[in-house]
Design goal:
With 149 residues, this protein is an alpha+beta fold. It contains three helices and six strands.
Length: 149
């Protein structure tokens, strides 16, 4: 269970860092837009301003996605102990560990390498609803579920 709590914290830190990074970039673009407004260099000025606006829109979309990720993570139960794989499960197969919460990448503990995956990923879709000792096939590889926490 300790690994599961650590995987959850890893996911939380991942999302928090991502939101802070995007927010910082948005602030930098706002600052650049503000200084662009003070400049009046004709067409060059308008092009630079338009590019900054596009960048701000792109970052706004990224921030929205990161906030959705945080909302999903808040719904992940941290104390699940189900007989079947559900959102919040730490699944051990004979090949790897999977924490079903959000897509946050690889998390290494001293004991294991855990892949933090979203329930929408192909692997999670195969695992969800499965029970102990059930077998899944993914990328021409067969994996057996040997633990669900």
């Amino acid at each position: 269970m300790q690994a599961k709590r650590k995987a959850y914290q890893f996911c939380k830190d991942y999302v928090d860092l991502r939101i802070r990074r995007i927010q910082k970039q948005i602030d930098e673009v706002k600052s650049a837009l503000s200084s662009e407004s003070k400049n009046t260099a004709g067409d060059k000025h308008e092009t630079g301003r338009a590019m900054l606006q596009l960048e701000r829109e792109k970052l706004g979309q990224q921030l929205l996605e990161a906030e959705k990720m945080l909302q999903l993570l808040k719904k992940v139960p941290t104390e699940t102990n189900s007989e079947r794989v559900v959102l919040g499960s730490l699944v051990q197969t004979d090949h790897a560990y999977y924490y079903i919460a959000i897509s946050a990448g690889r998390f290494e503990t001293k004991d294991a390498l855990i892949f933090c995956i979203s329930p929408n990923t192909p692997m999670a879709k195969l695992l969800l609803g499965k029970a102990l000792n059930e077998v899944i096939n993914f990328n021409k590889m067969t994996s057996k579920i040997i633990a669900i926490n």
